[in-house]
Amino acid sequence: MKQLSDIEIAQNCKMLPITEVAEKAHVDEKYLEPYGKYKAKIDLALLNESKRENGKLILVTAITPTPAGEGKTTTTIGLADGLKRIGKDVTVALREPSLGPVFGIKGGAAGGGYAQVVPMEDINLHFTGDFHAIGAANNLLAAMLDNHIQQGNALGIDPRKITWKRCVDMNDRQLRFLVDGLGGKANGTPREDGFDITVASEIMAVFCLSNSIRDLKERLSRIIVGYTYDEKPVTAGDLKAVGAMTALLKDAMKPNLVQTLEGTPAFVHGGPFANIAHGCNSVIATKLALKMGDYTVTEAGFGADLGAEKFLDIKCRMAGLTPDAVVVVATVRALKMHGGKAKSELADEDLEALEKGIPNLLRHVSNIKNVYGLPCVVAVNRFPTDTDAEIESIITKCRRLGVNTVLSTVWAEGGKGGEALAREVVRLCEEEKGKFTFSYELCGSIEDKITAVVQKVYGGDGITVLPSAKKQIEKLTELGFDKLPVCIAKTQYSFSDDPSKLGAPKNFSVTVKNVKVSAGAGFLVVLTGDILTMPGLPKVPAAEKIDVDDNGRITGLF
Fold it and tell me: What is the residue-wise DSSP string for 5-60?
């Protein structure tokens, strides 16, 4: 029997009308704004008017990613369906996929196998237009900034000190560095410029961390776009751009409601990358999901050193959230890659490679349990080639840390394959009360906070700050931004800033190349290693495999 692709599984699913999904999520129809039959936005008034108590919050994170795959989003969705199958009132809160990875190296990002959110094609492509609105607001601010300079520059903005970039939601390395404003005086002021991918823009971060329209406007007004000739920051508020930007974003701010393949309500909203941004869905969607279910399952991007660290140190700190349990997702295959096994040989039992790779999992687990003080379970996505000896090795090592390991088969079985994990998560929520702490306090210096993350979470020795970054830190401290949390941008492929250092490396230093403030988002962005805020397409982009037939049916999306 032919194995169906993810998109074929999604297209064969009989979806519930969105009104029925809303009813399951305790969303009254008066708050529902349908986008066709199977998608809707939710009026923000529901968040304030609902009398329901908040449910339990479960965070799903993972080991350091490898080309072998881990299945974090798939596990998140399968766990939610598993909780539903054991009789729990559950919602799931996810990020919206970026078009960059969809057409680049990764493909779609709505889960996989029989643990997906649908309509899969819509969610992976234009969805309800949120990312387009975010890009438009970002680029409106850029246009108003350059126009201000063109029309007399009353604020005295130094074109050499503009920090605001335009953005587009596509991997396009050609746009990283460019010169614009060419062609004579009527066409603007020539200057160096560049693009970020939309999911790395500060507007995306502001969008995902705002609690309301009012909060959104206040954050937008604080965005720093550049500096004057006498080194004073210039904000979006100074450019009088906030009202128009908010007008572009007001509908996008409403959380999107869709469903899993098994009809579990899913709030899919916002989508910053976790290697170059804070990597979590919107605060509003998370809070709404918590109101609408007794259990809410959410995920944070990439490994726990990136997405979970930022979820806990940034999002939870700003939004007043505390997870009741954390799931760390791993595969035997990925751990063997961390132990030096080639991707082509992962089907072979290799306890030695697994032994070398398991420390990666154990460091992530230890961080969640010992650094952040949260109850934790390891979910192992079992592949047919995994042997009992390999599985037992993982179980034994995790047990020494006081953490249980549960096998998950949600890709193949959907919610049924997540029932065991669901029961362990419920047990953690009911029996093991965590003592949540952050990995650093805000009172320390900028260097202190970066060092704390590197030493406590990454397992490194410390940081090496380049001279240019040192000057930036001094300037940001002088401007009073030194008490903000840090959003560290680094490779997702290693605990270090060197993607070749797999497993759980030791005796390394993280190089800080650039530090800038995202005053609207409320954090400092720390660029390390060779991280880029505009990815490029791979040699063979996923876009080459995507097509549409005469009936409008999409193929090859994933």
Answer: PHHHHHHH--PPPHHHHHHHTT--GGGEEESSSS-EEE-THHHHH--PPP-EEEEE
The pLDDT tens digits of the residues spanning 323-372 come to: 999 999 999 999 999 999 898 898 888 999 999 999 999 999 999 999 99
Give the Cβ contact number of residue 294 at 10 Å: 16
For 111-150, write each residue's pLDDT tens digit. Answer: 888 999 999 999 999 999 999 999 999 999 999 999 999 9
72 has catalytic annotation: yes
Question: Residue 242 and residue 1: Cα distance in Å, rounded?
Answer: 56
Active-site choice (106, 161, 317, 423): 106
Contact between 115 and 381 under an 8 Å Cβ cutoff? The reply is no
Active-site annotation holds for 232:
no
The catalytic position among 103, 411, 481, 508 is 411
Catalytic residue from among 61, 66, 73, 74: 74
Give dist(CA 348, CA 341) in Å, integer: 10
Asked if 74 is an active-site residue, the reply is yes
Let me know if 477 is a catalytic residue: no
Residue 456 known to be catalytic: no
pTM of the model: 0.94
